[in-house]
Amino acid sequence: MHIFVDETGSFSGVGKFPSISLVGALIVPDSRLASLEKKYAKLRKSFPKDERGEVKGRLLNEQEIARVVPLLSEHSALFEAASIDLGLHTEQGLIAFQAQTAERMTDGLTDRHTESLKAQVWDYRRRFEAFKLPLMVQTIVTFEFFPRLIEFGIMYFSTRRPEELGKFNWVIDAKGTMSTPTEWESGGL
């Protein structure tokens, strides 16, 4: 199966209702991917695109979306998402959450752990503590989302297309490049 992951929203706008951000994933069976890509390419020609030539959901109208959904269904694709409305949160609450989460990263370390493992976990903690709030929120939403995404995809395809469970192909929309990754991409968290 192919799993395409992307996000939308700025993961900012704390206290400014509504301020919704989302991490979503489209799961497409290997056996249906080529056909889906071919049929979507025909639809894509008529869709509005941003300055880089990329189709963005925010640019699509209801009729254009209504043309994509049946195509995904026809190809046994699944969509799963996790969202947050930062308009319902406060900066103080997010700062406290970040501190508590960072504390939990290291509070279970003991002398029974190797020095290299402890150093690595402390390094991850310091990086996480240094994240700006939007990056911290996006990281948490993503990491909370992935286990559910994997469980959902496996359960769905195990009864319908078990052959799809032999290989997972992840395509995660990167923002940086291999030579200049973003802070989130290089964080190793």
Polypeptide structure, described:
This protein has helices spanning 30-44, 62-74, 91-106, 115-130, 133-160, 183-186; strands at 2-8, 20-28, 78-85, 169-172. With 189 residues, it is an alpha+beta fold. It has one domain (2-29, 76-186). A four-stranded mixed beta sheet has the order 3-2-1-4. Helix 1 (30-44) packs antiparallel against helix 2 and helix 3 (91-106) packs antiparallel against helix 4. The radius of gyration is 19 Å and the shape is globular. The protein starts with a strand and ends with a helix.
A few lines on this structure:
49% of the residues lie in helices and 15% in strands. By secondary structure, the chain is α+β, with helices and mostly antiparallel strands.
- What oligomeric assembly is this protein in? single chain
Mean pLDDT: 91
Instruction: Give the terminus-to-terminus CA distance.
Output: 24 Å
What is the radius of gyration?
A: 19 Å
Q: What percent of the residues sit in helical stretches (DSSP H or I)?
A: 40-55%
Shape annotation: globular
Ranges where pLDDT stays below 50 over 5 or more residues in a row are: none
How large is the count of helical segments? 6
SS elements, strand count: 4
H and E order: EEHHEHHHEH
Strand content: 5-15%
* Largest beta-sheet details: 4 strands, mixed
Number of self-contained structural domains: 1
Computed structural class: alpha+beta
Strands ordered across the widest β-sheet: 3-2-1-4
